[in-house]
Amino acid sequence: MPDLLPRLGRLGALVLLLGLGSLGRTWAQGKFMTRGGHISFFSASIMEDIEARNDKVAAVFDLTTGQIAFSVPIHEFQFKRTLMQEHFNENYMESDKFPKATFSGQLTNAAQVLKQLPSATQNVEVEGQLTMHGVTHKVLVTGTLQMRDGQLVAFAYFNIAPADFSIDIPLLVREHIAKSVSVRVNLTCDAVTPALVSQP
Fold first, then answer.
1. Which residues contact 92 (CB under 8 A, 6 or more apart)?
2. Could you read off the pLDDT of 17-58 as tens digits, one per residue?
3. Measured in Å, how far apart are the chain's first and last C-alpha atoms?
4. What is the domain count for the chain?
């Protein structure tokens, strides 16, 4: 499986280029990007459910190769309660030290998706590396892809365990919080011209 981690350093430059030129709408190129993707998470708790959303996800899709990468700024997660948001950033995620979560991976069924995607929504499976809180784990995520008005729309739903990423939950509340967190990702990506994609 091609490893996109070395290329993630270019993600910010690629996303910046989106604001500097017009975006193509051609499906044939197979390359799509967004800098306004949505991600949210939810965790049930006896004391209080924990949920937040983030609308600043930057993502890159190359459907000609089946490669996918996205970056999530941790500080951009918004909670209903300010105190909960502070605890999330300072005590749990240490977002000053680990400002981003990243994912890089590849469609396991890329050939089938490329063949069927222009005409129908496709169930997809993505295998890759999720890095969060300074820890990287291999994950397998299922979701859907569809073409809608020239845009690539992606959806995924999966669970992660904070303990897998060395995120410490205080002993006082540990037994009252679910061991896993449900994550939803929604991305609506514009087609990108070849000139933009080839920039360093």
1. 162, 167, 168, 169
2. 333 333 333 344 579 999 999 999 998 877 778 899 999 999
3. 23
4. 1
